């Protein structure tokens, strides 16, 4: 079942995406299709999983107040972030390329 979702945050532009299950997706062959954040909630580390190889992607993580707490690049299908030093709470994980930005919620326990 495909649902249309509207993601909005005070620091991010609104982006309409289609989603099936818990995976966000954008339909375009030259952009990011989806990504997963596992485990969620997390306490020590989190895996960022891409379904297929894409060009180098940007990753940014923001707290709920909009402060960027992590910035980096993703160059492989599965990348790991150490989150054990992060405070408990809700974070936004933003993956982007030159055309598309996808955002997922992450809970740190």
From TrEMBL:
<dbReference type="InterPro" id="IPR026444">
    <property type="entry name" value="Secre_tail"/>
</dbReference>
<keyword id="KW-0732">Signal</keyword>
<protein>
    <submittedName>
        <fullName>T9SS type A sorting domain-containing protein</fullName>
    </submittedName>
</protein>
<feature type="domain" description="Secretion system C-terminal sorting">
    <location>
        <begin position="39"/>
        <end position="108"/>
    </location>
</feature>
<feature type="signal peptide">
    <location>
        <begin position="1"/>
        <end position="19"/>
    </location>
</feature>
<dbReference type="Pfam" id="PF18962">
    <property type="entry name" value="Por_Secre_tail"/>
</dbReference>
């Amino acid at each position: 079942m495909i649902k249309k979702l509207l993601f909005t945050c005070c620091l991010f532009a609104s982006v309409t995406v289609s989603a099936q299950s818990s995976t966000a997706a954008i339909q375009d062959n030259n952009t990011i299709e989806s990504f997963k954040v596992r485990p969620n909630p997390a306490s020590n580390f989190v895996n960022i999983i891409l379904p297929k190889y894409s060009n180098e992607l940007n990753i940014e993580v923001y707290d709920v107040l909009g402060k960027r707490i992590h910035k980096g690049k993703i160059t492989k299908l599965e990348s790991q972030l150490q989150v054990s030093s992060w405070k408990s709470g809700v974070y936004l994980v933003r993956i982007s390329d030159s055309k598309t930005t996808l955002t997922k919620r992450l809970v740190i326990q």
